[in-house]
Automatic annotation (TrEMBL):
Spans annotated as Disordered: 17-38
GO MF, one example: catalytic activity
Pfam families per record: PhzC-PhzF
Protein name (Swiss-Prot/TrEMBL): PhzF family phenazine biosynthesis protein
The organism of origin for this protein: Halovenus carboxidivorans
Matching InterPro entries: Phenazine_PhzF-like
Amino acid sequence: MQRREVLLVDAFADEPTGGRPVAVDPTGSMSASQRGRAAGEFGTSGVVSLDGETIEYADWDGAQAVVAAATAGAAGLYNRGALEPGAYELAVAGETDPAGPFGVELDKHGTVTVDVPTATPEFPAVDTDWIADAIGVDVAALEDVGADLPIARVGSFGGTLLVAVNFLEHLSGATPDTGTVAHLLDDADASRLVAFTFDTLAAETDVHARVFDPEARGCERGASGVGVAACTAHLADHAVFDGERDEIAVESGLFLDRPSTVRATVEREPSVGGTALTSLDGSLAVPEDDDDGIIEV
């Protein structure tokens, strides 16, 4: 067994253990297989490490969570004194669509911005009743706002299905059924469903989003940077803010007790990101590369 330093960093978190957790290898001392084991131990989508001026992300579960990885990795390494403000690239070990690398900016306050190339929103023929049944809301809550902002799909990063909901009262009561959501997303060729409303809890945010993903515990994630990127591209396509807003703040994760805020520019190829908090800075016992033993914390 070997001991390796490890961080658990919460991307976009408003408070400790909020947002989306990402494991970070701060010294780059883990092998590829050890990073995979660390991701499994902490239940994260992958592990971030640093190689010179390149932030590397090993995407172990195929979630393509590149914005969360870049935000957690850059901010976590900065908070530890291992990274200076500046411009970097995020390289992904694993397939992403679109392929990387992705531009990353880290400022002196630890705020991270990621350039996200996003495809043009499409408008699939998905039955509204099916969506309402999948996420557990009254279909009228979708049809109301859907007349002006139709259901959309953005194909990048595994695909995001975007569904507007009229009021937070209805979105807050959503109870997703994992099997139905999985079937719906498979039919729509998407990996996640982002249901959103302009009815927010915080005065300083513009959109409230819930990210439903059948691969996540309870079928929901605390935040999704690529999901927000898809959402803002959709809003830009429909000129929702009439050109009056260059950037918006999206709150998420509040009904999972993982509150988060993701910021994004309102354009078809948005810049997305935020801050991150380190919830764990310690070491992990990992097996040798040829050892099939179990990780011990």
